[in-house]
């Protein structure tokens, strides 16, 4: 198993993407520590991980609260000995469908502020322990930073993605000498993560798939499998970059 003996904290572990990564990590042998603001969803994912033979712990932690995140990271180290992998898949509080000229300042900045704040706080908390431990580690972000579709009003979502991509590069530069790798898993949209009752679901799925070169979009299972690879020693030469899981929707 590629992640046997590794300890991974997943911020946003109760969501669709976080849950997919947690299940994949569990199957790969990692002990996963799931955090989020709703214990019920975290516990449901943890039950799936345990049912497949993995180990999972849950804790209600707000990734925007630096003191709560720092305390949880310290608790994980006390319980498990170290932190090997930190994954932040916190959903951005974005407002879409409104032209920028009609948006409020608060709505436009919400995804930028939330994304940058949560990823800075969680990266700082976990990387400090990785550096002190001396055995390196992996920080994984999730998002995208390609050109937005021209027929969508995405507000500040892409601005937030771009800010996080710069953060990833800077973290990789500063943490590389300590053996800590930093990567972004980049998708062009995951149709199976969209609620079945979402408005215009069929049109959204068609838009996502239509932008790919392969005629299909990545699935949640694909993201989980790629995350396992990215966090494993098979990817030990990779840092400071994005892992393209867009089926060709974004070209590097």
TrEMBL record:
Key word Oxidoreductase present: yes
Record-linked InterPro entries: NAD(P)-bd_dom_sf (IPR036291), SDR_fam (IPR002347)
Superkingdom: Bacteria
Keyword set, alphabetical order: Oxidoreductase
Pfam families linked: adh_short_C2
Family, as annotated: Belongs to the short-chain dehydrogenases/reductases (SDR) family.
Name of the featured protein: SDR family oxidoreductase
